[in-house]
Write a structure and sequence with these properties.
Mean pLDDT of chain A: 97
Shape of chain A: globular
CATH superfamily of the largest domain in chain A: Medium-chain alcohol dehydrogenases, catalytic domain
Helix content of chain A: 10-25%
Order of helices and strands of chain A: EEEHEEEEEEEEHEHEHEEHEEHEHHEE
Number of domains of chain A: 2
Structural class of chain A: alpha/beta
Distance between the termini of chain A: 21 Å
Low-confidence stretches of chain A: none
CATH topology of the largest domain in chain A: Quinone Oxidoreductase, Chain A, domain 1
Largest interface: A-B, 62 and 61 residues
Oligomer: homotetramer
Number of helices of chain A: 8
Number of strands of chain A: 20
């Protein structure tokens, strides 16, 4: 047993403390790690606010270590041909159960959900905001690009985008989605929202060849506009200028009223990815004409959550590519580096936040 | 020009008449045909009621011949190695435009919609309720099974089901949908509705290996219960007994309130096929928790309309298989044979209707 | 321990005896079964001839019970909602290992092969030619159609065809394989061989909409020609009349010289399924032009072996459909019913053999 | 009519001249372009040697302008929102016919072949080794990355690799190809050959997560070894050290003897991409055991030729990513820049050639 520093909550009640905890030291382990950077997102804030009823502490414990968007460094590791001491790695958040999808490494598609699978820092497993972490090598994804540095902390949010595009690739095969020249040139992708996930969706959309527009119900800051511009991504305040003829719609808001307004702007054979969640969003009256619109146009609406290890690998690769081609914009996604003791960041977004991260001491 | 009998409406205003019309006789044609049986469905009734604003007469004409669920007989045909005089055929309803999907025979997935594609008896093309029809061979699908008889008139409604299962096959590939023994044994399919399309969906679902339940908000007649039983399909009055743990949900109602109640009973990785349309159905307040449910469970919702020629071929094959294994039940789907002059069937469903057809004299 | 009758070999040495063996009676079991009909095929004959070096006895035993194409009847079964005493069932041949494909019920695609997976009657597991069999319910596929009778013994060979068409479905997606009307009308499938597997491939090909021709290097018997004709399948003695413009080529011969002659008759985007095996077939000089032919035409050649439980289910469904539409031809596939003591059938094909089966007493 | 410089051959007879030719100036055109760099490959050399019987001059002409691996610059262009004067573009080589694949921009999968489709500089269409080129905008792919420079001339050979991986993606779906953690970590890809296409295949393989080894029947130069090393690609002289346990085998040699030796080292569910062609390669005796090997292991062998416009787009994107992460290695692929008058490069490879290009004056 050792005493270490950690940021903890009590799931699902909430609250947050940077405090000392006692953690057992395993006799045998594959890898011993320490955090370097850990991002925080709406889920962390929801947990601290006590707003996420599905979260729970590890079995037999009365607290939950927070943190799932992690970049770790290897302190010690058993003999293997993948990672070595000193390497930077990103740990998997969701850990498999025994369902048919979990057993092939696709716990992101768990057929059962809890308690078949667990998520570090969220449901029944401690997260990564603690001085020391023990884990199996198979749960770690190596950062190959030595230039990447702290940018690698964006792997976890980006992996969700990679999985969502995998879903798009599958469902869009129901008809010919591409142009008659086989490309996506001019195909319109609209991303609802302008937070960090919206940026990541937009950048991947550009890599995929889409004409991408981010939308929100207000104008955006000069800083964000510049970042979008660097990647060739457009922006629209949809209260002033509502996009239409959308081929791929991605929602990061979780707000039904916004979603369904945009669904009625989707083209025949269009695809809608539902990614954002906001359990408290009020109802929007979907009527017979809305259903009719979806049916007559062969529209597909796909919920997408989490991602598999391969998407972490893909995310790291895209981050490297982006970093080498647009270094400043990628760095600008991380808008604030907090110290662990600044637990107020769980309650209040730092001004101009795109992504806030904690730099672990 | 010849004068023939036809059942016509004036789209989109509505109305119905069994009347004489003047139709040009083409100098050259590939096939000359006459109707044998023609089914009627909600679309025909919607047109007659003037409720379908998207319908329109052929260009330059002030009427539209009704009828798209047709079984025709070949009166005369140019030299070819597919059909001959006397053959029974089913004509395609939707005719291609120039979009990328239309040009490969997938006008059911038309990327543009009207006016790129047209639908016989619905949008800009005369239907089949007329003494004589001229068409190209490529628009005709041969009835191969000589035993099938009038059952072949069910090809058109059944082809929609075949296409919807093609959509299911594509979108369900986003995860492992099947059991860990590779089968669908015990996978639950629920079909909302108990009309003719609901029966056809249920029968195909059984062929695909699903455990199938039809649902409606009332008990069903003894006759329908017997037909379901013959195919091993269950039934539930969902006001009394709400099914849950659904893997594949098919809606034939078009009613958002029913659809979204059932969506919240769908399993992880579940698929929802939206097929029914009812433009007048009132709004149902879809809220943040509903969206969250879809996202967290990787649920896919797919609108599906119309079908391609291959689905007509598949439909005829299934009808033959069903006819030889369950002759009485298949015959019982056709609950009433009307004469053309009985135009009241467009206003009022004959008692106990599953499918009403017109026997052309 | 009980003494029962069985037909055994000593793998891989060969030989065959109908003899008494001692088999342990398990204290607990899910299902107790007896054979009804068991087919024999080239594999059984290869084992008896000692020609299959990959076969082996169960661990610690000095004999191997033969028989993998089985139709069994349930003598006793533990409580379950799938099968009951008296039901007819077909047992799975291949039993899963721990590889990523095996663990999702796709041991037909075992990533490792022996000793990860085993095959009853072939590699390390006793087959079904014995008075009593104990098995788990998950390894049994129920015969649902009460009319099917002994025809169900064809499930095992047919399941291989179903899997091969699944492979075709996947690999043919690399381009548009179908006609520009979305159908397979006129698409040419050629099946090399005219034994039982060739018949089953041809019949499935017809169901899939292909224009099917079986070929062999001699004329065929009147009986076989009549059976083909009943299903609309053509035949060609390819020494006299070599087919060309082939879209789907299926080989059941395992003979490289025949295969590669036909490969050069395959159309652009064509698919070749390699199914037959004949380890002793002499070499055929494949040269640079042959490779060039495959490359320039985007041809896909896919080996396909075994099948998953879902293919057994599909096979049973097709057998029912065929039986009700072509009863005599389906019955005629079984050309001889032997008694267990007629072990000479393992050495010598009964005259006019398509499929020889043993009727277990 | 204007007189311009061009490098021409007389297909299929062969020969090569840098000479003046008369070319008509179209009254109307979408884009007027000039070459900047043009690569040469085995096809160009085969044409000049008169070894490619399938090549032919444009209809009514007695010569064929060579050159299909082109980087062009826009001299003049009609109003559009894709390219403007001064942009660098890569032109499509293959131009569509009317087949079902051509009509959706997939002339790389032409169902018919010549004369349905044509290839610039190869079959019936003039290539790009001439002072002035007129073309339609839809046949041009813009170079978006201003840093890329002459590296963009590698787009054409790389696009073939992108298409081959699309084929891999499709055919490998017939089973679970990936590891049980969903990744390709440790999956072994072997590329036969060490020329420019072999390098490009290897680099894409690395991007896809494979453990990649290039092989040849001799040791490789220090220069090539360094380039491989920079991308983490291994090399093996297979006469000394034959790789085995191959998951993805790519052939760039067209030599049956090498191909089939390596096929027998492919794992269960492995994929073989046949890409290289060498019509003069001698025969290799493929025997029954070779066929058996492919069947029993569910191996897929796929010919792959040419690519679609989307693959040009993907190729340009990968070139940019590689250029920014491995600038020197990417530059080192171009081993020699010739002047147009150096027509000896069509007969004799410059020493140490990976890719030779002509810099157009």
């Amino acid at each position: 047993m050792s005493t270490i520093n950690a940021i903890v909550t009590d799931a699902p009640k909430g609250g947050v403390k940077y405090t000392k905890i006692d953690m057992p030291e395993p006799e045998k382990y594959e890898a011993k790690l320490k955090p370097v950077y850990i991002g925080i997102c709406g889920t962390d804030r929801g947990e601290v606010a006590g707003a996420l009823s599905f979260t729970y502490n590890p079995e037999g414990e009365n607290f939950l270590v927070l943190g799932h968007e992690a970049l770790l460094q290897v302190l010690d590791v058993s003999d293997n041909n993948y990672i070595k001491r000193g390497d930077f790695v990103v740990p998997l958040v969701r850990r498999p159960g025994k369902c048919v999808n979990c057993r092939i490494g696709r716990q992101d598609n768990c057929s059962i959900g809890d308690p078949d699978k667990h998520e570090a820092g969220i449901t029944g497993l401690h997260g990564f905001m603690r001085d020391v972490i023990y884990d199996d090598i198979q749960n770690l994804v190596k950062v190959n690009d030595p230039d990447l540095g702290k940018i690698a902390v964006l792997t976890e949010p980006l992996k969700n985008v990679m999985k969502a595009f995998e879903v798009f690739d599958v469902v869009s095969k129901r008809s010919i989605f591409q142009n008659d020249d086989s490309t996506f040139i001019g195909k319109k992708m609209v991303v609802i929202g302008s937070g960090s996930e919206a940026f990541l969706y937009s950048f991947v959309g550009k890599d995929r060849g889409f004409d991408v527009t981010m939308v929100n119900r207000h104008d955006e800051t000069e800083n964000k506009m510049k970042m979008m511009d660097d990647f060739g991504v457009g922006f629209s305040n949809y209260l002033k200028d509502m996009p239409d003829k959308i081929d791929l719609l991605v929602d990061t808001s979780g707000d039904p009223s916004t979603i369904f307004k945009f669904v009625k702007k989707v083209n025949n054979n269009g695809v809608v990815i539902l990614f954002g969640t906001n359990g408290k969003a009020p109802g929007y009256p979907v009527n017979g004409e809305d259903i009719d619109y979806i049916v007559e146009r062969n529209i597909t609406i796909a919920g997408s959550v989490d991602a598999a290890k391969i998407h972490y690998v893909q995310a790291l690769d895209s981050l490297s590519n982006w970093y080498h081609r647009h270094p400043q914009t990628i760095k600008d996604i991380i808008t604030y580096e907090a110290k662990p003791e600044e637990t107020n960041i769980f309650f209040q977004k730092p001004k101009g936040e795109i992504k806030t991260v904690i730099k672990w001491p």
